[in-house]
Amino acid sequence: MEEAWILREFEKVAQLMPKRALSLIKQDRELFMEIVISAYLDGLISLGKAAEVLGVTREEVIEEFKRRGIPIRTPDRDDIASEVEAIECL
Q1: How far is CA 1 from the centre of its chain?
Q2: How far apart are CA 53 and CA 41, in angstroms?
Q3: What is the 3-state secondary structure (H, E, C) of 36-72?
Q4: pTM for the model
Q5: Which residues 6+ apart lie within 8 Å of 76 measured at CB?
Q6: What is the pLDDT of residues 4-42, one digit of tens each?
């Protein structure tokens, strides 16, 4: 990929200006969804956290993941703790 350097530089700038970088990423809903899906598949976030950052319900995330053929993980202890934390923030 000939523009790979742009991505590397964006990553560096994002570390200096995280709010601005996140704002740019969130403007492209499909890109943001792909990032959230990737984080979910890598086990970095739970379904509840995915819903929270996307601003939708957990059920909507499940439906979207099913539509895209993304497997839904059985919740483990960390997932449950994240869900409880999200509920407590309400």
Answers
A1: 24
A2: 15
A3: HHHHHHCCCCCHHHHHHHHCCCHHHHHHHHHHCCCCC
A4: 0.75
A5: none
A6: 999 999 999 999 999 999 999 999 999 999 999 999 999
